[in-house]
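thread from #wetlab-drylab

HS: before we spend reagent money on co-crystallization trials with iron/sulfur cluster, can we at least see a predicted complex? here's what I'd submit
DV: go for it
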Amino acid sequence: MIEEKIFAGHKTCYGCGVACKKNAEVKDGPFKMEKGPGPEYETIATFGCMCLNSSIESIAKANEICNRNGMDTITCGSTIAFAIECFENGLITEKDTDGIRLTWGNSEAIVKMTEKIARREGFGAVLAQGSLKAAEHIGGNAADFLTTVKGLEAPMHDPRSAHGYGLAYAISPRGACHEASLTFEAEGGTIFIPEIPELSSDLPEGSEGRAELNVAAQDYGMFFSNCAVFCNLGGMPLNATQAINLVNYVTGFDYTLEEVLAAGRRLWYLKRGLTNLFGARAKDDRLPRRLMTVLEEGPTEGSVPDMDRMLAEFYELRDFDSDGVPTKKVLDQVGLPDLAALLHQS
Ligand code: SF4
């Protein structure tokens, strides 16, 4: 469908052999758009599957609107899906939505609402704040339809299929984000780092070992994705030795695995501490009810992450107090005494 209806050529970042990007173009019809960056997986899943929308042209158009206005497609598509569920359940009507029938699969309404969000116009101004704020505005049981952690809409990787994702979403500093660590690549089997046992072992299905996996994926991921800025897709084939060698060749430094893991760990604690300073506590390290609902059919039938177990193990490994704040001792150990002083002032 993509190839027939919107595909307009491959694109790549400079020198990358993976070339994951696709251009899209819609030549005519209500979703006409000039040739430009096409929708990727997350965008197709949010504006498509989440909204029960089968029009790939409308997804390409919504993607173009988001790109041109600096809007994240996961948040925008998920927020519109949330609004559709509110509409379908009678929590909002056409009076609230400026006359737009926000029903499942209504591709024209989805694109119109994307435009209104971009312009903060009418009901678009409510949705432009994201689904968490919109749920507060709408009231009733709207919060039941949220997929947010710390206010950020979850990406299209279901923690019921891989429980480590659930822990990764819950404890990520910026909320439910699949780029916050390498947990997704490690548990999903797309990276294999033989130098780090937790990132190269076969885990049984379920929640066992996911706390250790997350800690290792955070420490190494902070180095790999945040400090060295490797692309998580293009960099997948690299093991740790190759990645560190590349950094050393370019910088002239002589980093070891232990040093990059120490830097990654320090960076992770810095982010966590800043999140704590903004007010996040243990109560915020939780998945929304929607993602903890047991499905009665399909590939993830009967499977939900054991969040209590994983969080307890993770807090112990990271040396958090019961409120979700790293202890002074661990912050001093990783080289963040100023942060320790701010978080433990008494
Ligand atoms: S894999 Fe990464 S570096 Fe390569 S084209 Fe895609 S985004 Fe760019």
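DV: The domain at 159-343 is CATH 1.10.599.10 (Aldehyde Ferredoxin Oxidoreductase Protein, subunit A; domain 3).
HS: ok that's useful, forwarding to the group
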